[in-house]
């Protein structure tokens, strides 16, 4: 009688463990999916922000260019258009960020760092452990 009861309990335990494993796996998959969707939304916001910044900076650049060219023609000296030199580099950077391949180059650079220079990503003093977190919590609490 005891072995029949024990076998049934073992079967139920195995089913419960399989159910818990399946539930944990599904929860992890959902968390990964949520984190990826949040990352995608943040990237989209950054690209959108870069495009909006480009619009404002492009208008500023055009204003400086027209004013500088007008002043240069009036004064017959190239001084008023000199600010266009650094502003052109800034405009090119903003354009590359908004519509160019900068994000692809950044991704490739990141992949290179992860694969070939992983030691640069190590945290000082290593990963926190439960013990270090608990010790800090107790210390802050005054225990």
Automatic annotation (TrEMBL):
The chain crosses the membrane at residues 80-98. One of its GO terms (cellular component) is plasma membrane. It comes from the Eukaryota. InterPro entries: Plg-R(KT). The keyword Transferase does not apply. The keyword Membrane applies. Keywords: Membrane, Transmembrane, Transmembrane helix. GO terms for biological process: positive regulation of plasminogen activation. This is Plasminogen receptor (KT)-like. It comes from Branchiostoma floridae (Florida lancelet).
């Amino acid at each position: 009688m005891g072995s029949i009861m024990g076998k049934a309990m073992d079967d139920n335990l195995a089913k419960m463990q399989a159910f818990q494993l399946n539930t944990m796996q599904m929860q992890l998959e959902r968390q990964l999916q949520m984190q990826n969707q949040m990352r995608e939304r943040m990237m989209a916001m950054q690209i959108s922000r870069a495009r909006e910044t480009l619009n404002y900076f492009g208008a500023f650049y055009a204003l400086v260019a027209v004013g500088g060219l007008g002043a240069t023609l009036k004064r017959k000296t190239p001084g008023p258009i000199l600010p266009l030199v650094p502003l052109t580099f800034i405009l090119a950077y903003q354009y590359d960020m908004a519509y160019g391949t900068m994000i692809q180059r950044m991704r490739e650079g990141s992949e290179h760092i992860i694969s070939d220079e992983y030691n640069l990503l190590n945290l000082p003093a290593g990963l926190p452990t439960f013990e270090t977190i608990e010790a800090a919590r107790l210390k802050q609490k005054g225990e």
